[in-house]
Design goal:
Elements (H helix, E strand, L loop, with lengths): L3 E6 L13 H7 L2 H7 L4 E6 L18 H20 L3 E6 L5 H11 L4 E5 L20 H5 L5 H4 L13 E6 L4 H10 L2 E4 H7 L1 H13 L5 E6 L21 H14 L2 E7 L10 H13 L6
Parallel strand pairs: 1-2, 1-3, 3-8, 4-5, 4-7, 5-6, 7-8
The protein binds arginine and manganese (II) ion (2 copies).
Organism: Alicyclobacillus hesperidum
Cofactor: Mn(2+)
GO biological process, one term: arginine metabolic process
Protein backbone atom coordinates (compact mmCIF):
# COMPACT_ATOMS: atom_id res chain seq x y z
CA UNK A 1 0.00 0.00 0.00
CA UNK A 2 1.17 3.50 -0.75
CA UNK A 3 2.68 5.61 2.00
CA UNK A 4 0.79 8.78 2.90
CA UNK A 5 2.57 12.06 3.61
CA UNK A 6 0.68 14.69 5.58
CA UNK A 7 1.67 18.29 4.81
CA UNK A 8 0.17 21.19 6.80
CA UNK A 9 -0.23 24.63 5.24
CA UNK A 10 -1.43 27.02 7.98
CA UNK A 11 -2.11 29.96 5.69
CA UNK A 12 -5.07 32.32 5.74
CA UNK A 13 -3.71 34.85 3.23
CA UNK A 14 -6.22 33.94 0.54
CA UNK A 15 -9.24 35.41 2.32
CA UNK A 16 -10.18 37.85 5.05
CA UNK A 17 -11.29 35.79 8.04
CA UNK A 18 -8.59 34.76 10.48
CA UNK A 19 -8.73 31.26 11.87
CA UNK A 20 -8.42 29.09 8.78
CA UNK A 21 -4.67 29.08 9.50
CA UNK A 22 -5.57 26.77 12.39
CA UNK A 23 -7.13 24.24 10.03
CA UNK A 24 -4.16 21.86 10.00
CA UNK A 25 -4.19 21.68 13.82
CA UNK A 26 -7.92 21.02 13.92
CA UNK A 27 -7.69 18.22 11.37
CA UNK A 28 -4.68 16.64 13.08
CA UNK A 29 -6.45 16.95 16.43
CA UNK A 30 -9.40 15.02 15.00
CA UNK A 31 -7.07 12.03 14.60
CA UNK A 32 -6.13 12.04 10.93
CA UNK A 33 -2.84 10.15 11.22
CA UNK A 34 -4.06 7.46 13.61
CA UNK A 35 -7.20 6.86 11.57
CA UNK A 36 -5.28 6.44 8.33
CA UNK A 37 -2.88 4.06 10.09
CA UNK A 38 -5.84 2.05 11.29
CA UNK A 39 -6.78 1.57 7.63
CA UNK A 40 -3.39 -0.06 7.11
CA UNK A 41 -1.34 2.79 5.65
CA UNK A 42 2.10 3.93 6.61
CA UNK A 43 1.67 7.60 7.39
CA UNK A 44 4.32 10.28 7.88
CA UNK A 45 3.46 13.73 9.07
CA UNK A 46 5.97 16.09 7.46
CA UNK A 47 4.83 19.02 9.60
CA UNK A 48 3.91 22.42 8.24
CA UNK A 49 5.10 24.54 5.36
CA UNK A 50 6.57 27.83 6.63
CA UNK A 51 4.02 30.63 6.52
CA UNK A 52 4.96 34.29 7.21
CA UNK A 53 3.47 35.64 10.43
CA UNK A 54 0.29 37.72 10.19
CA UNK A 55 2.13 40.72 11.59
CA UNK A 56 4.01 41.02 8.31
CA UNK A 57 0.89 41.02 6.17
CA UNK A 58 0.41 43.88 3.79
CA UNK A 59 -2.14 44.48 1.07
CA UNK A 60 -0.42 45.86 -2.03
CA UNK A 61 -3.11 45.15 -4.62
CA UNK A 62 -6.77 45.49 -3.61
CA UNK A 63 -7.68 42.92 -6.27
CA UNK A 64 -4.97 40.44 -5.24
CA UNK A 65 -4.73 40.68 -1.49
CA UNK A 66 -1.55 39.35 0.12
CA UNK A 67 -0.27 38.30 -3.30
CA UNK A 68 3.37 37.99 -2.18
CA UNK A 69 2.53 35.87 0.83
CA UNK A 70 0.20 33.60 -1.14
CA UNK A 71 2.81 33.03 -3.84
CA UNK A 72 5.62 32.27 -1.39
CA UNK A 73 3.48 29.80 0.58
CA UNK A 74 2.32 28.08 -2.63
CA UNK A 75 5.84 27.72 -3.98
CA UNK A 76 7.07 26.21 -0.73
CA UNK A 77 4.16 23.77 -0.80
CA UNK A 78 4.75 22.95 -4.47
CA UNK A 79 8.28 21.74 -3.66
CA UNK A 80 6.99 19.43 -0.94
CA UNK A 81 4.24 18.01 -3.15
CA UNK A 82 6.58 17.52 -6.12
CA UNK A 83 9.03 15.61 -3.91
CA UNK A 84 6.34 13.45 -2.28
CA UNK A 85 4.54 12.53 -5.50
CA UNK A 86 7.82 12.15 -7.38
CA UNK A 87 8.88 9.53 -4.82
CA UNK A 88 5.59 7.65 -5.10
CA UNK A 89 3.95 8.91 -1.91
CA UNK A 90 0.38 10.16 -1.63
CA UNK A 91 0.24 13.64 -0.13
CA UNK A 92 -2.64 14.70 2.09
CA UNK A 93 -2.33 18.48 2.21
CA UNK A 94 -4.07 20.34 5.03
CA UNK A 95 -5.11 23.98 4.54
CA UNK A 96 -5.38 26.73 5.12
CA UNK A 97 -7.65 28.53 2.70
CA UNK A 98 -8.17 27.33 -0.85
CA UNK A 99 -5.43 29.55 -2.36
CA UNK A 100 -2.95 26.86 -1.26
CA UNK A 101 -4.33 24.51 -3.93
CA UNK A 102 -2.30 26.50 -6.47
CA UNK A 103 0.76 25.14 -4.66
CA UNK A 104 -0.59 21.59 -4.60
CA UNK A 105 -1.34 21.65 -8.31
CA UNK A 106 2.01 23.26 -9.12
CA UNK A 107 3.76 20.41 -7.30
CA UNK A 108 1.60 17.87 -9.11
CA UNK A 109 2.37 19.46 -12.45
CA UNK A 110 6.10 19.23 -11.69
CA UNK A 111 5.83 15.54 -10.79
CA UNK A 112 3.30 14.24 -13.32
CA UNK A 113 2.92 14.65 -17.07
CA UNK A 114 -0.88 14.71 -17.00
CA UNK A 115 -3.31 14.63 -14.13
CA UNK A 116 -6.96 15.45 -13.58
CA UNK A 117 -8.61 17.51 -10.86
CA UNK A 118 -11.90 17.10 -9.04
CA UNK A 119 -12.67 20.42 -7.38
CA UNK A 120 -15.27 19.77 -4.68
CA UNK A 121 -16.61 23.20 -3.72
CA UNK A 122 -19.68 25.41 -3.27
CA UNK A 123 -17.76 27.98 -5.31
CA UNK A 124 -16.10 28.01 -8.70
CA UNK A 125 -12.82 29.54 -7.54
CA UNK A 126 -12.57 30.69 -11.15
CA UNK A 127 -12.19 34.42 -10.55
CA UNK A 128 -9.27 36.54 -11.69
CA UNK A 129 -7.99 39.91 -10.48
CA UNK A 130 -10.34 41.38 -13.09
CA UNK A 131 -13.53 39.56 -12.04
CA UNK A 132 -13.05 39.19 -8.27
CA UNK A 133 -15.71 40.82 -6.10
CA UNK A 134 -13.51 40.53 -2.99
CA UNK A 135 -9.84 40.63 -3.96
CA UNK A 136 -9.47 37.37 -2.04
CA UNK A 137 -7.16 34.99 -3.85
CA UNK A 138 -8.98 31.89 -2.52
CA UNK A 139 -11.64 32.74 -5.13
CA UNK A 140 -9.04 32.38 -7.94
CA UNK A 141 -6.96 29.19 -7.59
CA UNK A 142 -8.76 27.08 -10.18
CA UNK A 143 -8.64 29.81 -12.84
CA UNK A 144 -4.95 30.37 -12.12
CA UNK A 145 -4.19 26.66 -12.35
CA UNK A 146 -5.65 26.37 -15.85
CA UNK A 147 -3.71 29.47 -16.90
CA UNK A 148 -6.29 32.25 -16.53
CA UNK A 149 -5.59 35.38 -14.50
CA UNK A 150 -2.66 37.39 -13.20
CA UNK A 151 0.78 36.28 -14.33
CA UNK A 152 2.06 36.08 -10.73
CA UNK A 153 -0.48 33.30 -10.10
CA UNK A 154 -0.67 31.57 -13.49
CA UNK A 155 3.12 31.42 -13.77
CA UNK A 156 3.64 30.18 -10.22
CA UNK A 157 6.47 27.61 -9.94
CA UNK A 158 7.35 28.22 -13.60
CA UNK A 159 4.73 25.88 -15.05
CA UNK A 160 1.68 27.01 -16.97
CA UNK A 161 -0.96 25.73 -17.08
CA UNK A 162 -0.81 23.23 -14.24
CA UNK A 163 -3.72 21.21 -15.57
CA UNK A 164 -5.77 21.00 -18.76
CA UNK A 165 -9.30 22.38 -18.35
CA UNK A 166 -10.83 19.31 -20.02
CA UNK A 167 -9.50 17.21 -17.15
CA UNK A 168 -10.97 19.51 -14.48
CA UNK A 169 -14.38 18.85 -12.92
CA UNK A 170 -16.19 21.08 -10.45
CA UNK A 171 -18.57 19.23 -8.12
CA UNK A 172 -21.07 20.85 -5.75
CA UNK A 173 -21.08 24.36 -7.22
CA UNK A 174 -23.88 26.67 -6.09
CA UNK A 175 -22.33 30.11 -5.62
CA UNK A 176 -20.72 31.58 -8.71
CA UNK A 177 -20.16 35.31 -9.36
CA UNK A 178 -21.67 36.42 -12.71
CA UNK A 179 -18.39 37.30 -14.49
CA UNK A 180 -16.91 34.13 -13.02
CA UNK A 181 -19.73 32.14 -14.65
CA UNK A 182 -18.74 33.58 -18.00
CA UNK A 183 -15.12 32.50 -17.46
CA UNK A 184 -16.25 29.01 -16.49
CA UNK A 185 -18.34 28.70 -19.64
CA UNK A 186 -15.45 29.79 -21.86
CA UNK A 187 -12.80 27.75 -20.07
CA UNK A 188 -13.82 24.19 -20.94
CA UNK A 189 -13.81 22.92 -17.34
CA UNK A 190 -16.68 20.54 -16.56
CA UNK A 191 -19.20 21.48 -13.88
CA UNK A 192 -21.72 19.48 -11.87
CA UNK A 193 -23.78 21.96 -9.89
CA UNK A 194 -25.97 21.11 -6.92
CA UNK A 195 -28.88 21.05 -9.36
CA UNK A 196 -27.08 18.32 -11.35
CA UNK A 197 -26.48 16.37 -8.15
CA UNK A 198 -30.21 16.69 -7.30
CA UNK A 199 -31.26 15.39 -10.71
CA UNK A 200 -28.62 12.78 -11.51
CA UNK A 201 -27.70 11.68 -8.01
CA UNK A 202 -24.20 11.77 -6.54
CA UNK A 203 -23.38 8.29 -7.80
CA UNK A 204 -23.83 9.20 -11.48
CA UNK A 205 -22.20 12.60 -11.02
CA UNK A 206 -19.06 11.17 -9.43
CA UNK A 207 -18.73 8.32 -11.93
CA UNK A 208 -18.85 10.85 -14.73
CA UNK A 209 -16.51 13.25 -12.90
CA UNK A 210 -13.94 10.51 -12.32
CA UNK A 211 -14.10 9.47 -15.97
CA UNK A 212 -13.58 13.06 -17.15
CA UNK A 213 -10.68 13.69 -14.77
CA UNK A 214 -8.98 10.33 -15.25
CA UNK A 215 -9.23 9.85 -19.02
CA UNK A 216 -5.83 10.35 -20.60
CA UNK A 217 -4.17 11.23 -17.29
CA UNK A 218 -2.01 9.47 -14.69
CA UNK A 219 -4.65 9.99 -12.01
CA UNK A 220 -6.65 12.51 -10.02
CA UNK A 221 -5.95 15.25 -7.51
CA UNK A 222 -8.95 15.92 -5.26
CA UNK A 223 -9.26 19.48 -4.00
CA UNK A 224 -11.71 19.18 -1.14
CA UNK A 225 -13.15 22.50 0.04
CA UNK A 226 -15.22 21.74 3.13
CA UNK A 227 -17.75 24.41 2.12
CA UNK A 228 -18.85 22.02 -0.64
CA UNK A 229 -20.73 20.22 2.10
CA UNK A 230 -23.90 21.73 3.48
CA UNK A 231 -23.12 24.07 6.41
CA UNK A 232 -25.26 21.76 8.54
CA UNK A 233 -22.39 19.25 8.37
CA UNK A 234 -19.48 21.66 7.97
CA UNK A 235 -20.29 24.91 9.79
CA UNK A 236 -16.65 25.87 10.37
CA UNK A 237 -15.92 27.52 7.03
CA UNK A 238 -15.43 31.17 6.10
CA UNK A 239 -17.82 31.30 3.14
CA UNK A 240 -20.73 28.94 3.90
CA UNK A 241 -23.50 28.48 1.31
CA UNK A 242 -26.80 26.74 1.97
CA UNK A 243 -28.05 23.84 -0.11
CA UNK A 244 -24.84 21.82 -0.15
CA UNK A 245 -23.77 18.21 -0.37
CA UNK A 246 -25.17 16.07 2.45
CA UNK A 247 -23.20 13.90 4.83
CA UNK A 248 -24.14 10.73 2.94
CA UNK A 249 -23.52 12.21 -0.51
CA UNK A 250 -20.13 13.42 0.66
CA UNK A 251 -19.12 9.97 1.81
CA UNK A 252 -20.46 8.36 -1.35
CA UNK A 253 -18.37 10.73 -3.45
CA UNK A 254 -15.24 9.80 -1.48
CA UNK A 255 -16.01 6.07 -1.69
CA UNK A 256 -16.43 6.17 -5.45
CA UNK A 257 -13.17 8.05 -5.88
CA UNK A 258 -11.47 5.56 -3.58
CA UNK A 259 -12.83 2.59 -5.56
CA UNK A 260 -11.70 4.10 -8.85
CA UNK A 261 -8.09 3.62 -7.77
CA UNK A 262 -7.12 6.87 -9.48
CA UNK A 263 -6.34 9.13 -6.51
CA UNK A 264 -2.86 10.68 -6.54
CA UNK A 265 -3.18 13.44 -3.96
CA UNK A 266 -5.70 15.46 -2.00
CA UNK A 267 -5.96 18.81 -0.35
CA UNK A 268 -8.42 19.50 2.44
CA UNK A 269 -9.08 23.20 2.80
CA UNK A 270 -11.13 25.99 4.37
CA UNK A 271 -11.59 24.38 7.81
CA UNK A 272 -11.83 27.35 10.20
CA UNK A 273 -11.88 26.20 13.85
CA UNK A 274 -12.83 29.67 15.12
CA UNK A 275 -16.13 29.49 13.24
CA UNK A 276 -16.66 25.81 14.05
CA UNK A 277 -18.65 24.05 16.76
CA UNK A 278 -16.39 21.85 18.87
CA UNK A 279 -14.32 20.81 15.85
CA UNK A 280 -17.28 19.32 13.99
CA UNK A 281 -15.82 20.44 10.65
CA UNK A 282 -12.34 19.15 11.49
CA UNK A 283 -13.88 15.77 12.34
CA UNK A 284 -15.98 15.82 9.17
CA UNK A 285 -12.82 16.42 7.15
CA UNK A 286 -11.11 13.42 8.74
CA UNK A 287 -14.13 11.19 8.16
CA UNK A 288 -14.24 12.12 4.49
CA UNK A 289 -10.52 11.42 4.13
CA UNK A 290 -11.06 8.02 5.76
CA UNK A 291 -13.70 7.15 3.17
CA UNK A 292 -11.39 8.44 0.46
CA UNK A 293 -8.67 6.04 1.62
CA UNK A 294 -10.93 3.02 1.80
CA UNK A 295 -12.88 3.04 5.05
CA UNK A 296 -16.17 1.19 4.65
CA UNK A 297 -19.05 0.26 6.94
CA UNK A 298 -18.31 -3.45 6.57
N1 LIG B 1 -12.36 28.86 -1.70
C1 LIG B 1 -13.43 29.59 -1.39
N2 LIG B 1 -14.10 29.37 -0.30
N3 LIG B 1 -13.75 30.56 -2.26
C2 LIG B 1 -14.82 31.48 -2.06
C3 LIG B 1 -14.85 32.53 -3.16
C4 LIG B 1 -15.96 33.52 -2.93
C5 LIG B 1 -16.12 34.54 -4.05
N4 LIG B 1 -16.47 33.90 -5.28
C6 LIG B 1 -14.85 35.36 -4.23
O1 LIG B 1 -14.22 35.35 -5.25
O2 LIG B 1 -14.46 36.06 -3.34
MN1 LIG C 1 -12.80 26.79 -2.73
MN1 LIG D 1 -15.62 27.24 -1.42
Amino acid sequence: MKEIHIIGVPSDYGQNRRGVDMGPSAIRYAGLKEKLERLGYRVRDLGDVMVPTPETRHIEHQKLKYLKEVVSVCEALAERVRDAVGSGYTPVILGGDHSIAMGSLAGMAAAKKQFGVIWFDAHGDMNTDETTPSGNIHGMPLAASIGIGHEALTGLFGIRPKVQPENVVLVGARSIDPPEAELIRQSGVHVFTMADIDRMGMDAVMRKAIELAATGTDGIHLSLDLDGLDPMFAPGVGTPVNGGVTYREGHLAMELLSESGTLLSVDVVEVNPILDHRNQTGRMAVELVESLFGKRVL
